[in-house]
Fold:
Amino acid sequence: METKQKSLLVLDFQNLWRTMGKKLPLAEVRNKIEAKQHAHVSMATIFLAQYFVAERGSVWERKLYEDAERFGFEVRVVPRPSVCQEMDFVDIAIMDYCRQKAPEIKSLIIGTGDGDFKPIFIDLRARGIEVSLAYYDMPSINLLRVASHHFQLKAGCMCQNRKRFLSGR
Structure:
């Protein structure tokens, strides 16, 4: 039987992007998370809604994909379902992905602040997976209570130059 050694990093892009003042330095986020976890992130994925990319224009979208590739992130664009759902459809896609990856991982780090993730935190912890919460500002108290670990990214992770966008340079 193979021992699970992988760490999965999942970013709820819109949630972090809004709380960071519409800037998300991917390299700094990944480096800070790896330093806090004292481990290398084996898999890193960014989730965002299809409408979010489409509204931003081609230059912004190109930069997002370039930076994601440069810093080892897979980008998953989630199409809006035809039927309206109570819970955010991107959150549902993230939870489904985490459940799918559960057999392969020993730890999960979710970058968000959204309380909708409480069920996946509880589910994965019951399976013996360490679940950490990485957030910028004002995370859900429910997530803080159910996470194995939690840490704020804000200190030392903000861009020095506010004009830098999505870049760790």
